[in-house]
Amino acid sequence: MSSSKRISLCWAVSLLLGTALTLPAQNASFDEIPRSLRTQLAAYLTQADFSYVTDDAVPVSGEGRLYVQDSCYVLDMGLMKISSDGIDRWTVDADAREVYVEKAVSIAGAVAGFTVEKFDGLSSGGVKARLLAPDGRRITLTVPKMKMTAKAEADFFRVNTAALPSDWIITDLRQ
Question: Is 90 strand, coil or helix?
Answer without folding.
Answer: strand
